[in-house]
Write a structure and sequence with these properties.
Shape: globular
Strand order of the largest sheet: 2-1-3-4
Low-confidence stretches: none
Largest sheet: 4 strands, mixed
Number of helices: 3
Number of strands: 4
Distance between the termini: 17 Å
Structural class: alpha+beta
Bound molecules: glutathione
Order of helices and strands: EHEHEEH
Helix content: 40-55%
Mean pLDDT: 97
Strand content: 15-25%
Length: 80
């Protein structure tokens, strides 16, 4: 699972904090990808999802924008 994000984006912080609260460790349970504007990570976001927006989650075939949707998706996945 990859989370495309950047540090100063509040929506990205919201997702990272929620992942922390779920006990998920970056580099172990998911990969954090730097995706501020002009980075290769942002190019990948646009290529994979069609929009230049973060946070963006990729989990296998699942691709998702929207911080709340991302947190709900991962919460459901953890409890199922
Ligand atoms: N409703 C979205 C808002 C996401 C959003 O506005 N992200 C900003 C960065 S914090 C963004 O991608 N802006 C366009 C850009 O950085 O190029 C969410 O909750 O994830």
């Amino acid at each position: 699972m990859k989370l495309y994000q950047y540090r100063t984006c509040p929506y990205s912080s919201y997702v990272r904090d929620a992942f922390d609260e779920m006990g998920m460790v970056p580099g172990k349970d998911y990969e954090l990808v730097e995706a501020s504007r002009g980075t290769p990570g942002r190019e990948e976001v646009v290529r994979l999802g069609g929009l230049s927006q973060v946070p963006f989650l990729v989990d296998g075939e699942t691709r998702m924008y929207e911080s709340r949707d991302i947190v709900s998706y991962v919460r459901n996945k953890q409890t199922s």
